[in-house]
Amino acid sequence: MKYDLQLDINVNTSHALMLQRITEGSKVLEFGSASGYMTKYLKEKLNCEITCVEIDREAAQKAQVFSKKMIVADLEQIDKWTVQLNEKYDYILFADVLEHLRDPATVLKKAVNFLAKNGTVMTSVPNISHNAIIMELLEGKFDYQPTGLLDDTHVHFFTRKSVFEILEHCGLQPVEWLSTMRKPDSTEFHQSYSNFPIPVANFLEERKDGDIYQYVTISKRIEEATNFPTINPEQENGDNHLDLDQCQLYFEKNGEYAEEDSLLQPIKYDNEVRKCQFLIPKSSKGNIRIDPCSTQSIVNINYIKIYNVSDQKVLLESNSENQFSGIKKINQLYQVNFEKKSEFISLTQDPNFILDTSNLKFEEQAMLEIEMSLNKNKEDIFNLMVNRIDTLIDEKSQIIQSKDTEIGTLQTSIQNLENQVVENKNVIQNLQNQLSTLEIKYEEKEKVLSDLLNSKSWKYTELLRKISNKFK
After folding, report:
1. Which residues form a coiled coil (predicted)?
2. Domain that residue 253 falls in
3. Which of 180, 222, 308, 363 minimizes the number of CB atoms within 10 Å of its CB?
4. CA distances from 371 to 244, 265, 355 (A)
5. Which whole-number Å values give the CA distances from 261 to 281, 308, 370, in the listed order?
6. CA–CA separation, 303 vs 370, rounded Å?
7. SS3 sequence, 192-256?
8. Are 208 and 355 found together in one domain?
């Protein structure tokens, strides 16, 4: 089973563009349902009644759970599936199917017979004139891939012109002309304009359909399309680059942040300051999680604020000046430039921060606005990290040098004290020596005195001393 895909309704893929335009409770005929990733959404989210036609029996078994009726048949064996259809449908879907058919015009025209009055046919097909294919051809390559523009099961190829022609052949008029887009380097071919001479690269980059990956058409019967604006085959159809990242906003419910309740705004990694604005549902309670991007990048946040749409009253503002007050928690975002407080770096695919809005009451329509610039240039990220590391090394070196100076000063003080101790020891030793000398002299004097007092002469003159004392 080759096409067992995951559906993300928040990203404007060809499947999401179709599903976003289907009314709840409709009857849908889905050709090429594969494993039922669209069928499931139609059933569970839009409460539609779906009939499917699928060639792969294993995939059909998975999708059958969500369909009212599953027909296992080769679409080009028309009688095998048409005989099993006896209803009219509000929507007929050919999502990435026509390119697998040798005669897509005949199959599409037959399917239109089952379209209800004012019903809608939706198709998506790859663009064979994508710049990546042209660049491959310029290099002499036309290599099939497991999936993508040159999927190895594609047998029919389309350009803008041929899509219009097949729709017209089937009696259909597009009322919406949509597309998905990818730069050559983000396709499965990973081509780069730098591989080609500048004039060639410039020519390719200026081509209107050069980045269009898939054409998506929303069509009515020609006679029923008169109330809709006429689509010009050469008309530009807006920018829907799938390789552009998204800033995503989540609203807390029961302590969790659910993908299906999130809001998205496209972002560009061009280092230009831009605003992302999100209307906050009035029912919102709890905190808000902001994922500014989903890849490694330099994130420079000027401010985040929430304000009432009616009077512009600011309910919350967070920026570098107030040290990003209001941000409760930061995950996988690192402040690497302490001089530029608003600059962060994301080194993972899931950077986010939690904004504390639990005490805010959104009684009227409020807007969350984040002004920031993004840069995912690997060299710039590397240089920023290197510069920060160099700065940290310099700071640490200065600290170490300062500590070394302090240690040197302390060592000098200690040496001085040790010298003073030695000097004091010498003084003490000298004093002790002097004391010893005095003690010896004292002992000698004491002996002389003792000898004198015990001498005969001292005894014989005692009377004379007494008489002498009386006359004093």
Report:
1. 400-455
2. 246-376
3. 363
4. 18, 12, 15
5. 10, 21, 19
6. 6
7. CHHHCCHHHHHHHHHCCCCCEEEEEEEEEEHHHCCCCCCCCCCCCCCCCECCCCEEEEEEEECCE
8. no
Q: Is this structure's pTM higher than 0.70?
A: no
pLDDT digits (tens, 9 = 90+) for 169-225: 999 999 999 999 998 988 999 998 888 998 998 899 889 899 999 999 999 999 999
- For residue 167, give both structure tokens: 């729709």
For residue 350 the two structure tokens come to 């899931």
Chain-centroid distance, C-alpha 185: 19
* Cα–Cα nearest to 212, from 125, 127, 123, 95: 127
Write out the two tokens for 303: 């401010």
Statement to judge: residues 259 and 325 lie in one domain: yes
Statement to judge: residues 322 and 301 lie in one domain:
yes
Q: Is residue 296 part of a domain?
A: yes
Q: What is the DSSP string of 88-135?
A: -EEEEEEES-GGG-SSHHHHHHHHHTTEEEEEEEEEEEEBTT-HHHHH
Spatial separation of the C-alpha atoms in residues 342 and 303, rounded to whole Å? 8
